[in-house]
Amino acid sequence: MFKKIDVNNEKRHELYKFLAANTPGFAGYIEWNFAKFLVDSQGLPIKYYSHTIPPNDILPDIIQCIEAHG
């Protein structure tokens, strides 16, 4: 992506509409631009990680999710 897009509000980009509607356990509001979504090989979101969690801290969970979802 090369331009600014909306991730919340009525102008929310289609990608984030899809992620918000299909991510298990996700409340629907993206707090900050460093939030992370884990998407499986079929393009379906499987997990949301808050911007407050550093990438290195979620690595074990990402590995576990990848192993569980193939």
Short key terms for the protein model shown above:
70 residues, 2 helices, alpha+beta, single chain, 34% helix, two-stranded antiparallel ribbon
Structure description:
The mean pLDDT is 90. The radius of gyration is 13 Å and the shape is globular. 34% of the residues lie in helices and 13% in strands. The N and C termini lie far apart (27 Å). A two-stranded antiparallel ribbon has the order 1-2. It has one domain. It has 70 residues and is of the alpha+beta class. The longest helix is centred in the C-terminal third of the chain and has 15 residues.
| Fraction of residues in H or I helices | 25-40%
Give the distance, in angstroms, between the N- and C-terminal Cα atoms: 27 Å
Q: Biggest sheet, in brief?
A: 2 strands, antiparallel
Structurally, the number of domains stands at 1
Query: What share of the residues does DSSP label as strand, in percent?
Result: 5-15%
Regions with little confidence, pLDDT below 50 for 5+ residues: none
Number of helices: 2
Cα radius of gyration in angstroms: 13 Å
| Average residue pLDDT | 90
